[in-house]
Input
Amino acid sequence: MIGSTLLSTLCLSLLADPQPWISRVQPANDTWELGGYGGVSILSDDHDLYDVDTAPQRRLRRAGPLGGLRGGYFPLSFVGAEAEFDGLWTERADGSEPVFAWGLRGHAVLQLPFYRVVPFVFGGYGVMGARSSRDAVGNDVDPAGHYGLGAKLLITPWLAVRVDGRHMMSAAAARRRAVAHHGSVTLGLSFTLGRARASQSEPRERPPAPNLALDTDRDGITDTRDACPTEPGAGADGCVPTDGDGDGIMDLHDRCPDDPGVSIEGCPVVDTDADGIVDAHDRCPDQPGVGTDGCSPPPPEPVPAPQDETTQVPMPSPAGDGS
Output
C-alpha cells in the first residue's frame, strides 16, 4: 500500500511540470527534516554491551531488525545536523534470552544540493546501550562513534526516500585500546518542513530586461515609447490620431476637442454680444456695438439753444442822471 502510494505520487510529480525531472526539486535553506527508518544492524562478536556482573561477555546474534526516528535541521542547503534514536531486537547467540540494543547519536551532514537525487556523507558521536535480564547481558551503556554515507530521492518538495549505510565503533569487550566494529543499512522516509518560508527568503531571479528595440505594431515607434503598442499610429505617442469634434483639427492640437471650431486652435468662433464682431476682436464683448472695435460710439455733446433777437437788454443809466 505504501509502495503504490509513493509510486503514484512520483508519477504525478513527473507529469505536473515540463522542467527536467532531475532538477525540479532541490534542497533549500532553513528547513527541518523529520522521519523514520528501518533496516538491518550487524553487531560485532567483540561487543562490550554487557554488565560486568554478568561476566563473562556473551555473544549476541550478529544480525537483527532495526527501527528508529530521525530529526535534522539544515540552515544551508548543503550542510546540517541530525539526531537519531534506534532500537535493535536481538538475542543471545544460543537463542536463550532476548536483548534490546539501542543507540542515541548526533552527527553533521554534508550533501550535494543541486538535483532531486541528493548524495550525502555524515559523521558524529553518541552512545550504544543494551537492556536485558541478568541471564542475558544485563544493562550497559558505551560511547560510540560513527560515520557513513547515503542518498535521498526528493519525491516532492516535502517528501523524500532515504537510504543510509553506517559504520559504528565502540569499545571491544575486555580489551584495552581495541575497537569493536558494527554496521547497519537502513531505508526510510523524511518529511521536509519550512520549505515555503525558505523559498520566500531566498533571492528571486530578476525579470529579463525589456527589449528596447521591440516594435510590436511596426509603426516605427518602439514599445517603450509607444502609448498604443498594439495599434499602429502616426502620432508622436504611437497612437492613431483622433478628431473627437470632427472639425479637422486633431485632438492632440485642438484646444476645444469637444466643440467643433474653425480657428487654427480648433475652438468655435464666439460673438457674445451678437454685434457681428467676434470676441477675439471685440473690445466690448458684452455690449453690442457698431464700430470696428465692437463698441458703440459715444453720444454727441449737447448744442446750446439760440437767444431771441427781440429781447432787450437793459443798459445802465449814465452817471449824474437825476432821474
